[in-house]
Amino acid sequence: MKKIKYSEITPEKIYKNRRSFIKSIGLGASSLAISTIPFANKSLANERDKLTSYKDITTYNNYYEFGTSKGDPYRNAQIFKTSPWDISIEGEVEKPIKLSMEEISEMFVSEERIYRLRCVEGWSMVIPWMGFSLSKLLSKVNPTNKAKFVEFESVYDPAQMKGQRYPVLNWPYNEGLRIDEAMHPLTTVVTGLYGKKLPNQNGAPFRIFIPWKYGFKSAKAIVKIKFVENMPTSSWMWASPREYGFYSNVNPNVDHPRWSQATERIIGEGVWAPRVKTLMFNGYGDEVASLYTGMDLKKYF
Amino acid sequence: MIKYFKPSIFVLSTIPFLVITYKIFFNKLGPEPVKEITHFTGEWTLIFICLTLSMSPLKKLTNLNYWVKVRRMLGLFVFFYASLHLLTYIGIDYRFSWQPIFDDVVKKKYIFVGFAAWILLIPLTITSSQRMIILLKQNWKKLHRLIYVIAILGSLHFIWLSKTIYFKPLFYFLLITVLLALRINFKRIFEK
Fold this sequence. Notes:
The complex is a heterodimer of chains A (about 300) and B (about 190).
Chain A: H1 6-9, H2 12-25, H3 54-59, H4 72-76, E1 86-91, E2 97-100, H5 101-107, E3 111-118, E4 123-133, H6 134-138, E5 149-154, E6 174-178, H7 179-182, E7 188-193, E8 196-197, E9 207-209, E10 222-228, H8 235-239, E11 263-266, E12 276-277, H9 285-288
Parallel strand pairs in A: 1-10, 4-11
Antiparallel strand pairs in A: 1-2, 3-4, 4-7, 5-6, 5-10, 7-8, 7-9, 11-12
Chain B: H1 2-25, H2 33-62, H3 66-69, H4 71-93, H5 98-107, H6 109-126, H7 130-136, H8 138-144, H9 146-161, H10 167-181, H11 186-191
Helix pairs in contact in B: 1-2, 1-4, 2-4, 2-9, 2-10, 4-6, 5-6, 6-9, 7-8, 9-10
């Protein structure tokens, strides 16, 4: 199967028109499909590029802080307070900084970014996020020469986050990237969805999204970004190092011990829809494969 | 009353099947319908395993014989729901593409034990008739003790597929453990 480039999914012109397009149909944009856009290569305009409905994206996802069932985040996150919210950037940096969410939204312009999301559980969505490259934010600090990785710490607030009252994971949720991965333009700070403010259940007010990695790498409700020297142990690595590696790049050739990663189910496609083949790096190989040149991805899964 | 006991249990046992059929054809399964069907049929298989295993303890407890009269039927419903579960996985989920299915059975331990449990149900289903009981005599009882193994494999299947510590798989595991423990004749063990 041909790799689908980011630029192919969203031609720049349409990308720019998209916001007004979405606005014009309002919230009922759930039926909006990217396949209505004429493609040079028609075969690309298939099911896997159709935007997942707003309803499915916002009512069906994993966010264990609010419960382990995929309906829990929607049910339990509505009362979650996202303001005031500060994000501190610290660790191996010359001068740590602390920014409020207001400052961040003033500093950076969010644009629409349509990315595929591949969950490690074998399902996928296509999501029109609003956001900007994390590299822009990280460039506000100067890392010391010790810094090799970036660690992301999510909020710990069991009073508001029901799921954190149980030791399902080692709270607070922790994730990490290598610096070059964190600085990659595809690595996104997400602030919105479908042209609207990011809903609580999807990680508001500040989450990241790394389209070529399994969904759990994209930490939600982040409060702390830390430059570190050693590879961080993410929450999922802590829970089961055999099952969840640090890199967790989407890779159809490396099976999870409990399920195959060769294929996936597209959310919202109905009972009779077949599985589709999972793409290497979730289809973003042209952009990111060079980050892993010479690495054995079976070993560094 | 007793006359209607068995037919009522039969009708009640078909309800999960009717519910899932309704949900499939009226699109009530949410964003991941195939997973819903798989989980639904899988869980009902475990529920019927537990029900089947509850009959003889209930008989002892209540001193009423008719519990055992429905045991075989409940056992057949275990096979029925287990087969629906397997068919969902093979037919709907993997569309009979045998290579990935074969890989799963060999490589994934939870699928291996689940598949093994289903295979073990086959001899029990075949020998469930009155004629077979007469034909197999003492061996029938021995053979049908396989349900204990099946129950353990079934609950392991659920535990191993879960991503982290979940309440439900552990609940079934405990329930099955208790139901099996009730069968151990401690008196006999200690007198030896």
